[in-house]
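Hey L., structure's done. Input below.
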Amino acid sequence: ATVNGMVFLNPSTGRTVSKIKESTGIVNMFYGTPSEKSAVLYSPTGFLTYYNMSNGMRKERFITEGQLEQVTLFNNNMFCAGVKNNQIYIIDALSGDVSARVSARSSVLLSDGVSPTLYYVETDGKNYTLKSIETKITEDGSSIANPTTIQSLPGINSANMITSGLYTDGQIVLGSRAG
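Output:
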């Protein structure tokens, strides 16, 4: 990506391909559907924008919380989550509305896009804890549960600070500063 927008490359030739008809600006989350016909982008200026990737036209744009980091989708991409100022923001991905804010110090978000559970690791500077937030969507609306502590993660010190993570196939993989 560039400050002017996203750059798409043809993987066979390495040449630039025109996919989106307007400048997206800075983007720190992009998710393309498996069919590659639609995509959603999050911009740190506070926009959640959906595009038709077949014709490059914008489908919808929502104003939402700006300056989020680690932006990810979960619960079949119905919710978006991001971190700012030691809080996790949970956003309705179909409206841009902030559904909840959860206090979480130095957290790393973990999601596979599909699970209704957002996992995260937080630290108080000495100890790490794995936590989860359950979401539910019904005909009457959505609900977001309070965070649940899954377990403490002993043996991780500041030299092995957790910097990244992945939730996939029911497993959580964490990356640290020390590798």
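The chain is about 0% helix and 55% strand. The radius of gyration is 17 Å.

-- N.
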